[in-house]
Fold this sequence. Notes:
Helix content: under 10%
Shape: elongated
CATH topology of the domain at 39-128: Immunoglobulin-like
Number of helices: 0
Number of strands: 10
Strand content: 35-45%
Amino acid sequence: ITPESENDFGSYNCSASNEMGTESKEFLLIQAEVPSAPFLSEVRPFSTSAQIEFGEPESTGGVSVLKYRAEWRMQGRGTWLHRAYAVDDGFSAEATVTGLKPETSYEVRLYAINGKGEGESSLPKFFKTKPVRKFLSLQHTVEPLSHPRPHKHNT
Length: 155
């Protein structure tokens, strides 16, 4: 059913009959809306990436959420960068933002997207990436092991 007006939404009854009998099923055709904003619950920053955890939108708009889109930028300035995350069977409410600069303040926001379109953005979360970790390298002097020469046996 492709609705052409508001009057097309409502309850439909579908029936099928053959020599084995008749079967009926009632369907409800509702108008889809874009989803409401998801909720950003936590941002765990690293030096060049951040893991974001979020809650699903309160309303999916009557149809399933297909993907989420994260947007991020340096706090208060610059162009918003973005990446979409598809919802599949193994989906968890987490996403990783990459390509960040160490020790930099960022803001991130999230959108839910269904078949009707993209909903409102979540409230932004602000975070600062960590410094690059420096690893100490300990230098060792390795002495070669001296092996005694095998004795030759006189035969």
